Inverse folding.
């Protein structure tokens, strides 16, 4: 009786998530692998592996290094390219009963725009046939691993504005911009996204970090720096989500080290509409299912019927 | 969850863990293993050393915090196992050699147990371990201590060769294979760092002649000639 009254739904524009548990880009492939471990319809959404207009082979050398309570990664946006994603992954995405988010990166602004158009054209074609594979575009202006793009766009608001504006004009799909914690002023960046017509922002992407192999006397990573994620970054992420929520009126999707239902609740109390879960997928292969269940348990224990009762209370 | 049946030290920093459960691991496959809740974050990829009716065995070396924690676990403790994962060794054809360097001997034991004929070459740097177990399989075993185990095998004597060991050894094996007559199909088992273990995160990526592959799902066993060592 009590269960049926729980309201865990979240909204970004017209898109409704059945719960706030969204799997973060880069940690979940396109969902197929984890789909073998549990039922993906338990999730609020899935943000796919970041894609770019052209395929990328990513960084060579070591790509992961564990840190206390975290990990550094230097994958370098390895991906099959937008067209291969549309051709090879979207048939599976059409079958998913969860919000499907395509994460789009780019090298040049033209790459971003062309990628966004390809996705949009495909989406309209499918829609005319009564099918749907993508619900939302998450624009990656913050991947710190790509020398030519990523980092540069996500740091200065005036440079990021150009990308957001161009991609906004290139897609009819709802747009969420994923922000970098390495931005000069992340709240300012979020405000810019709102001004440019984004439906939402998500944050934080990984923090730029470093690891030196003292015996070899060089960086563990060929790319020198790598992206830090995991519980180590959670307090920073939470603070940034809180700051951004004070500045914008569009939905904010919070992420950074989330590993429990209580962690998710913290982000929601800080003002997040929904959350994303990344590194914890590597800790627990059932992360999504466990967190969705844990959230309901927490709500029951605390007598919370709707997440709106606690959202943004700080 | 799997309960540990035994976890014994067999040499300095080298352990064999026997974990209970019914698995259907094939030769050369691995498990993502953790003996703790959230920290360290990542599970450790350990190849299958052996498998019996009671469970699965891992021969592992203490290399960092995670394996140190595993080494301190005792019979009755629980470990979390995700697997078996990966493709493992292909079917061996003709005369077969298995060559292991250091802890790289681990996946060769279970592989050898399923072969009617195999010559085993085991290389150690400091201390020999599990020699008795390997000899009990009934195959010829050549032990190398402190030298270069690869030098003991003539690749042209074989049709199939499985190799596992540190990267310099695999690189040398690739060169040796390229300079041989080409009779032997040479396969290497890689020990890349992993995070998810199931093909989602791309951190175990392997440069191959036809682009990048994933050590976890496309491997960990690859044709020696196809890997492009950095």
């Amino acid at each position: 009786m009590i269960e049926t009254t729980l309201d865990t739904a979240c909204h970004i524009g017209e898109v409704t998530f059945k719960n706030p548990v969204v799997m973060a880009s880069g940690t979940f492939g396109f969902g197929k692998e984890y789909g073998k471990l549990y039922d993906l319809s338990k999730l609020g959404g899935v943000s796919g592996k970041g894609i770019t207009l052209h395929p990328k082979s990513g960084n060579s050398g070591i790509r992961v290094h564990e840190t206390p309570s975290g990990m550094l990664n230097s994958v370098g946006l390895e991906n099959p390219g937008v067209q291969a994603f549309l051709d090879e992954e979207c048939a599976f995405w059409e079958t998913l009963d969860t919000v499907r988010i395509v994460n789009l990166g780019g090298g040049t602004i033209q790459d971003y725009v062309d990628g966004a158009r390809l996705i949009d054209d495909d989406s309209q074609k499918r829609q005319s046939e009564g099918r749907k594979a993508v619900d939302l575009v998450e624009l990656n202006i913050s991947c710190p691993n790509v020398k030519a793009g990523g980092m540069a766009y996500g740091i200065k608001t005036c440079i990021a504005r150009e990308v957001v504006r161009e991609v906004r004009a290139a897609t009819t799909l709802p747009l969420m911009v994923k922000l970098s914690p390495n931005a000069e002023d992340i709240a300012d960046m979020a405000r810019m996204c709102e001004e440019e017509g984004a439906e939402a922002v998500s944050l934080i992407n990984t923090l730029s970090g470093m690891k030196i192999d003292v015996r070899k006397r060089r960086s563990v990573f060929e790319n020198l720096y790598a992206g830090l994620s995991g519980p180590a970054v959670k307090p920073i992420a939470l603070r940034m989500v809180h700051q951004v929520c004070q500045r914008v009126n569009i939905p904010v999707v919070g992420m950074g080290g989330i590993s429990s239902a209580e962690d998710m609740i913290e982000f929601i109390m800080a003002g997040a509409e929904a959350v994303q879960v990344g590194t914890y997928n590597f800790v627990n292969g059932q992360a999504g299912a466990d967190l969705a269940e844990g959230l309901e348990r927490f709500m029951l224990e605390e007598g919370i019927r709707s997440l709106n009762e606690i959202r943004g209370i700080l | 969850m799997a309960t540990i049946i035994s976890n014994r030290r067999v040499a300095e920093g080298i352990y064999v863990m026997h974990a209970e459960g019914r698995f259907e691991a094939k030769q050369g496959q691995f498990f993502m293993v953790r003996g703790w809740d959230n920290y360290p974050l990542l599970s450790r990829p350990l190849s299958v050393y052996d498998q019996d009716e009671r469970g699965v065995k891992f021969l592992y070396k203490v290399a960092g915090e995670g394996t140190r924690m595993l080494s301190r676990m005792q019979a009755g403790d629980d470990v979390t196992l995700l697997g078996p994962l990966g493709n493992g060794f292909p079917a061996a054809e003709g005369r077969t050699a298995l060559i292991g360097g250091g802890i790289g001997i681990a996946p060769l034991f279970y592989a050898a147990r399923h072969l009617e004929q195999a010559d085993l070459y085991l290389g150690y740097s400091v201390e020999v371990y599990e020699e008795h177990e390997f000899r009990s399989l009934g195959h010829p075993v050549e032990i190398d201590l402190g030298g270069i185990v690869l030098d003991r095998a003539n690749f042209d004597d074989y049709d199939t060769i499985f190799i596992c060991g540190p990267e310099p050894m695999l690189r040398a094996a690739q060169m040796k294979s390229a300079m041989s007559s080409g009779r032997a199909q040479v396969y290497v088992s890689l020990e890349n760092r992993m995070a998810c273990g199931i093909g989602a995160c791309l951190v175990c990526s392997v440069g191959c002649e036809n682009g990048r592959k994933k050590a976890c799902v496309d491997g960990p066993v690859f044709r020696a000639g196809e890997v492009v060592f950095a």
User: Anything to note?
Assistant: Chain A has eleven helices and 16 strands. The longest strand of chain A covers residues 99-104.
